[in-house]
Specification:
Elements: H1 2-25, E1 33-35, H2 38-42, E2 46-48, E3 51-57, H3 63-68, E4 76-80, E5 82-83, E6 98-107, E7 117-121, E8 124-125, E9 127-132, E10 135-140, E11 157-161, E12 167-176, E13 183-184, E14 189-192, H4 193-227, H5 232-249, H6 255-259, H7 265-290, H8 297-315, H9 319-324, H10 326-349, H11 355-376, H12 386-466, H13 468-488, E15 494-495, H14 496-514, E16 519-523, E17 530-531, H15 535-546, E18 554-565, E19 568-579, H16 595-607, E20 612-619, E21 622-630
Parallel strand pairs: 1-6, 16-18
Antiparallel strand pairs: 2-14, 3-4, 3-6, 5-13, 6-12, 7-11, 7-14, 8-13, 9-10, 9-12, 15-17, 18-19, 19-21, 20-21
Protein name: Histidine kinase
InterPro entries: 7TMR_DISM_rcpt_extracell_dom1, Bact_2-comp_sensor_kinase, Galactose-bd-like_sf, Sig_transdc_His_kin_internal
Transmembrane segments: 204-227, 234-261, 267-288, 300-319, 325-344, 356-373, 385-402
Length: 632
């Protein structure tokens, strides 16, 4: 990137040298007359009508009036491009707020007669009428002899014409009551229709390209800022790009007037100056965010205050006063540019990332801007290179900002990949853990079920010898229970109605085994809701193992309730074993490591990983288990 910028420097210098050489080789107007030869025109696609034009102060004349009163009219000469208020001759002072007439006698080769030619006429300060052999061919605004009669307008134009004679009288009537300068800042050009159309198209294309580029750059960095609001350099660069785009809208080919022909001249001037003055605060803010260790707060705040003050003055002042700010503002711009160069030089010395590219890009813009200021003041005769400098600066800075965020994006992608690998590893560990838990669960099932089956078969054996009827009843209950266990044991979730039916079968088996009455009730249970299998069945089996005795009178209750805690919803299941014969109050316990409870925990973890809790312990007359499951 640095190599490219250096090359652009060289190209700029070569173009400047070439422009000076071309100016010396082309014909110049002298004493209001200019001769164009066929040989000179063949070497150039267009010729600037620069040089000494006849100048008639405070007169609006036509060709006939000039010819008739040639001896009596007070005439002076003015070098175009130039301003009549800059004429410094003894005893002559010309006010810019006035009107005048410019006259040039142009001699063409005979071969040009009946050819197709054109003039490129830049905007005048602040309006003009152009006559060719006393025929009006172009008009910008309304030329008047007073401020009331005059309507300001700026728009470069191409005018086509076909010469019928070798001699051409060009008359320009110019009026100005708003600007501090009166006349033409740029050259009036003569050439073929084809060359002028091509030149106009190139200029328009360049303006459109710069406007579109600055708009895209501004929008792109603003969107980046919205995504990454902690980096304010993106916001300031976006604003900096936007005001630069507005500057291009109100200068060059005046694209704003092409889009809106009736746009008020006063606001055109205000917007133009605002776009110039606001550029520096936004650029300083951008530099301050990119190189915070190099910029000083005090000079930064001083420059910010000065340029914002200029901007406020422009916003609320008339056009004449607005232009009065230009000279002091240009001085402050010069100091501000030197300050920015000093900041960027410090950044280069401190080896900040991309500092050298920023410095070279800004130096290029600084040189082109300095060239344009000197050109506008008629100190040098080159061309307007500001758009080229602006493009180089924005391209370089956008490139380095993009490079910075490209590195950031690469880092994020790398971190994302590492995170995905970590998540994948955690998922594999989790799956391995679940697989281990399932194997452990199967082991517990194989431990619990044979124990229950062995006790039940012993009871059947007893009743076979005592009562065939009761042995058949217990055998039916056992078969029903085992059928359900076989059906649901391998499933992760089943309808809770199947679990309740299983519990009833088991209580029926125990009732026949012990010849005792047991009560079993449920509250708030929806038979269709899903729940892990064998949870309550295991808890009931535990209750018979630990709570039942000869004198015990057990009853079983299962309750279910939905609750909300801290914006989360839970289903709470309460399993209670109530012994009606207990009178003492044993100590409550929330710990336990029995086989049955381990089985319950594994079942819950398999179905609701990390979203469940279990509490258990003895109550006043029995035993209670509380299961809480997060559902939302």
């Amino acid at each position: 990137m640095i190599d490219h910028t250096i090359k652009l420097f060289v190209i700029f210098l070569l173009i400047s040298c070439q422009s000076n050489a071309t100016d010396n080789s082309l014909p110049k107007a002298k004493a209001g007359k200019m001769l164009i030869t066929e040989g000179i025109f063949q070497n150039h696609t267009f010729i600037k009508l620069d040089g000494e034009w006849d100048f008639y102060y405070q007169k609006l004349l036509n060709a006939e009036e000039i010819k008739k009163n040639e001896l009596t009219l007070e005439k002076d000469t003015l070098i175009l491009p130039g301003f009549w208020n800059e004429i410094k001759r003894e005893g002559k002072v010309y006010s810019p707020q006035s009107y005048s007439t410019f006259h040039l006698h142009l001699t063409l080769p005979k071969s040009f007669i009946h050819g197709q030619f054109s003039f490129y006429i830049p905007h005048a300060f602040t309006t003009y009428r152009m006559y060719l052999n006393d025929v009006l061919i172009s008009e910008n605004g309304t030329v008047g002899s007073s401020e009331i009669e005059t309507r300001e307008y700026w728009l470069p134009k191409i005018v086509f014409f076909t010469p019928t004679t070798e001699e051409i009288e060009i008359i320009l009537q110019v009026a100005n009551y708003k600007s501090l300068n009166a006349g033409f800042r740029q050259s009036i050009e003569f050439g073929t229709q084809e060359s002028m159309i091509r030149k106009k198209q190139v200029r328009l294309a360049l303006d459109i390209f710069l406007i579109a580029s600055l708009f895209v750059i501004s929008l792109y960095h603003f969107m980046l800022y919205l995504l990454k609001k902690n980096d304010q350099s993106l916001l300031y660069f976006s604003l900096y790009s936007f005001v630069s785009m507005v500057y291009k809208f109100t200068s060059g080919e005046f694209f704003l007037l092409i889009l809106f022909p009736d746009f008020e001249w006063r606001w055109l001037i205000k917007i133009f100056f605002l776009s110039v003055y606001l550029t520096f605060p936004f650029f300083l803010s951008f530099i301050g965010k990119v190189f915070p260790n190099e910029i000083g707060n005090k000079p930064n705040y001083i420059f910010q205050f000065i340029f914002f003050s200029f901007s406020l003055f422009v916003l609320f002042s008339e056009s004449t006063w607005i232009e009065e700010t230009l000279f002091p503002a240009e001085i402050m711009m010069l100091f501000c540019c030197i300050y920015v160069i000093w900041i960027l030089s410090k950044a280069v010395i401190n080896k900040r990332e991309n500092a050298a590219g920023f410095l070279l890009g800004f130096l290029f813009l600084f040189i082109t801007a300095l060239n344009d200021i000197l050109f506008e003041k008629n100190i040098i005769k080159t061309e307007v290179y500001g758009p080229l400098g602006t493009f180089v600066l924005f391209f370089s800075q956008s490139f380095f900002l993009s490079k910075k965020y490209s590195k950031l994006y690469t880092t994020v992608e790398k971190q994302k990949l590492e995170l995905e690998q970590t998540v994948s590893l955690k998922e594999n560990i989790y799956r391995a853990n679940i697989l281990s838990k399932r194997m452990e669960l199967e082991l517990y099932k194989k431990t619990i079920q044979p124990h229950f089956l062995m006790n039940s078969l012993s009871a059947i054996r007893y009743w076979v010898s005592e009562s065939a009827e009761k042995s058949a009843e217990i055998l039916d209950s056992l078969v029903g229970e085992l059928r359900i266990i076989l059906k649901v044991a391998s499933k992760q979730l089943i309808p809770i109605g199947e679990e309740i039916k299983l519990c009833k079968y088991h209580i029926g088996v125990m009732k026949l085994r012990t010849e005792k009455e047991y009560r079993f009730r449920t509250f708030g249970i929806d038979p269709k809701e899903e729940f892990p299998p064998l949870i309550f069945h295991t808890l009931i089996e535990n209750a018979f193992t630990h709570e039942d005795s000869i004198k015990a009178k057990l009853s079983f209750i299962i309750l279910k309730k939905n609750i909300k805690k801290e914006e989360k919803f839970f289903s709470v299941y309460c399993f209670i074993v109530y012994n009606h014969c207990k009178s003492n109050e044993p100590e409550a316990s929330k710990s336990g490591s029995g086989t049955g409870l381990e089985y319950v925990r594994l079942r819950l973890e398999e179905s609701y990983s990390g979203k469940w809790s279990l509490q258990h312990g003895k109550s006043k007359k029995g035993y209670r288990v509380l299961i809480q499951i997060q559902i939302h």
